[in-house]
Amino acid sequence: MENAKKFGMVIDLDKCTGCGACMVACMAENNIPFRADNTDKMLSISWMHVYKLNNRKLFPDYEECYLPRPCQHCEGHGGHSPCVSVCPATATDYDMDTGIVSQIYPRCFGCRYCMAACPYHVRQFNWWDPLWPDGMEKMLNPSVSVRMRGVVEKCSFCIQRYQQAKDRAYMEGRREIAEDEYQTACTQACPAGAIVFGDLNNPEHAVHQLAQPDPARHGHSKNPRAFRLLERLGTNTKIYYLSSREWVRKAGDNYLEGEFKSKAHS
Amino acid sequence: MDSALIPKGVKRCPAWQFIMWIGANGAVLTWGVFALLLVYFKGLNQTNMNNAYGFALWIWADLAVIALGGGAFFTGFLRYIVGKDELKNIINYAVLIGFICYSSALMILGFDIGQPLRGWFIFWHANVHSMLTEVAFCLTAYFGVLAIEYAPLVFENRMIKKVPFFHNLSHNMHEIMAVFAATGAFLSFFHQGSLGGVPGVLFGRPFGFREGVLVWPWTFFLFTWSAAAAGPCFTILITKITEAVTRKKLVKDNVIDLLAKISGWMLFFYIIAKIGDTLYWANVTAPSKGSTFMDFYTSSSGSAYGLWILFAEIGVCGVLPALILIIPKLRKTQATLWLAVILAVIGLCLNRWVMVLQVLAIPVLTFESWFTYFPSWQEIATTILPVAYGVIMISTSYRYLPIFPQERELNPIDEPAAPPEVAESEPEPTDAGPEPELSPAES
Hints:
The complex is a heterodimer. Chain A is built from 7 helices and 12 strands. By secondary structure, chain A is of the alpha+beta class. In chain A, strand 9 and strand 10 (220-221) form a beta hairpin. Chain B is mainly alpha-helical. Chain B has a single domain (3-411, 421-437), classed as Formate dehydrogenase/DMSO reductase fold, CATH 1.20.1630.10. Chain B has 16 helices and 2 strands. A two-stranded antiparallel sheet of chain B has the order 1-2. At the A-B interface, helix 2 and strand 6 of A face helix 5 and helix 6 of B.
C-alpha cells in the first residue's frame, strides 16, 4: 500500500455561513431522493447535513456556528470503522487504497446495524421508494445509481468523480491524478471556500497542510485550530474541522469537567 | 370429534371450547399477519423507526424471545450433560417453548429487514467479523436442533405413532437426543453471546460498548449467562400459566423447585457480574470516552430512560428474584415463586430493551438531543403476532401430544372400561413404554 491515498476533508467552521449549498450540490450530484414533505429530517436523506450549534449563552454572549457533516469515513484502527465491521453481508467496505467507506446498495438487505453503529447519523435508510417529480428523472446523474427502498445509503465522497478522474488520467497515460481533478460536489459548491478536499497522505495537498495529521497518533491533528468529531471514541475520522473559537472545538467531543484543554491539545 | 388424537389417560376440554380458544387467538394472529403483509408490501415506512432508531421494537422482541427461549438449551444442558434426571419431566415443555421462541425470532428477523428477498445474503455474503452473521448462522442451526428435539414429541401423537416409520424414527431419535442437546448448548452459547456482542462491539456508542476478551465484549458473556439464568424462569412461568389455565397440576413441585433453584443461583451470580460490569463501565469505560454515568440517563421526571430503569433491571428484577429463588422457603412458596419468575423475566426483557433502545436514544454528538420513539400499530401487531402463535402452538401441542410426562399420574381420571372391539382397533406398539413416561428425555 505504498501509494495508498487517504482522501479527507477540512471544513473551516469560521468560514461556513450555513447557506446549505453543499447539501443541495450533494443531493443533485448523488441522486438523493426526497419526498413532497421532506421536513422530518429523521426520515429524509441528506448525505451532507448542516447542524446549527450555539454556545448555550444568552445575548450579548450568544454565538452560533454551522457545522456541515458528511460521512466521516472513519478509519478506526487499521480500517476497523464502526460501521464496516458490523455489516453482516459485507455490503460496506473500507478501501485501504483510498480511505473511503463505500456502500454496496444491491448487496445491502437493510438490517440497519450500520446505522446503529454510526454515532454521527451519517447512515440513512430509504424508508420509501425513490420517486422523482415528472421530468426530473431525466436530470439524474447517470454516473450514480439510484437506490431502492429498504437499503442504507451515505456519503461516498463522490466516488464516481474519482473513478472518472482515474479513467481520464489513464487515457492520457498518467498514473496519478492531480489534486483538482478529484473534488467532491460539496467542496466545489461552497461559496465561502470553507471545504477543502484532497489526499491527507499527500503533503502537497492543501487538505494535508491544513489538517496536519499525525500518523503516529491515528491522524490526530497537529493544528491547534483543528478537531475531529468524537475523536475519543477511536473512530479516527477523515473530516477535520477548523475553528478559532474554543467552544466550537469543545463541542466536537465529549469531555469530563476540566478535561477539555488537556485532552484536546495533548 | 378429535378424541382419537388426544393422548390416552388425560382429560381435555371439549372440542368446541378448544376451537373457540384457537379462534380467538387466531383473530389476534390474523391482525398480526395483516400488519405483516402491510410491512412486506409497503416497506418499513409502516413503522415508527427512523434514521436514529434503526433498531427498535422488533430487534428488542428478537433479543428478548431468544433470551427467554434460553430455557430450552439450558434445561437440555442440565438434563443431558449435567445429568439432572428430574428435569426429564419438564424438558419437553422447555423444548416446545424454545421452538416457539426461536421460530418467532426467525420470523421477526424475516420482516425486520428493508429488503426481505435479500435475507439470504447474510449467509451468502457473510461477513465473519459481524456479530449479526454469527447470530444468523447459530440461530438458524439451533432452530434446526430444536425442530429435531421437538419432532419426536410430535411423533408421539396417538395417530402418528401408529405409523411404524414414525414410531421407529421417534425411538431412534430419543437414543441420540443427548448429542443434539449438547449441540444445542454449544450453538446457544455462541448466538446468545453474539446477541450480546451486537451492542457490545459498537465502539461508536459508549452506552453499549464494552471491553472484553479477544473479540468478545463482556456483554457476550453476560447475555449468555442471563439467558441461561432467566430462560428457565420463563419456562417455569409458562408452565405455571398453563397449569392455571388448564386448572391441573402438570409438573411435580420437586421438578420446578430444582429448576428454580438452579435458575436462582445462576441469576444470583449473573447479577453480581452485571453489577461489576456496570460499575466498571460507569467508572472506567464511559469516562475514558469523556462521558459521565449520568450522561446516559435523563433526569426529567417520567422519562423512559431515567435511573429508574437501571434500578428496576438490576435491583427489583435482578437481585430480588435471585434472592427469592435461592432461599428454599421463598422458592417453595407459590406466591413468591410466581413473583420471582415474573420479575426475572421482566428483568431479562428490560436488559435487552436497554441494550438496544437506550443505546440509540442517547445522543453521542454533543449538539444533539435525546431521540424518542414509540412503535406504530403495525410494529405492535407484528410483535403480538408471535404471542398468539405461541399460544396456539402450546394449546395444540398440549391437547394432542404427551408434553407433560407426569400429567396422568398427577391427574388420574376414571376411564370407562373400553369395549373389547375398540381396544383391538387401536393396538399400541409393543415396544412402546408406558405413556406417561414418553418424552424426548427418555431414551
